[in-house]
Amino acid sequence: MKTEELTNNVLRALDEIRPFLNSDGGDITLISIDEGKHVKVRLEGACTSCSVNQMTLRAGVETTIKKYAPQIETVINVM
């Protein structure tokens, strides 16, 4: 998968998960995709102080990204 296609797929995944984050006062931004397999995102708004943000990152965000881009190995939240 080319870089542009990979980026578009990750952005589509974030667009799918964003309404759930928005409903709780949060949001998410794509920061980078490194080596075509490591995604860095920034959880924003209420998500930054939420006690379950790591569970949201793994169970929601990472799962959704991997659905659109199976070659992604890790999803990391950067502050």
TrEMBL record:
Pfam families: NifU. Transmembrane segments: none annotated. Residues 12-76 form the NIF system FeS cluster assembly NifU C-terminal domain. PANTHER family: IRON-SULFUR CLUSTER SCAFFOLD PROTEIN NFU-RELATED, NIFU-LIKE PROTEIN 3, CHLOROPLASTIC. Belongs to the NifU family. This is Fe-S cluster biogenesis protein NfuA. It comes from Flavobacterium granuli. The lineage of its organism: Bacteria, Pseudomonadati, Bacteroidota, Flavobacteriia, Flavobacteriales.
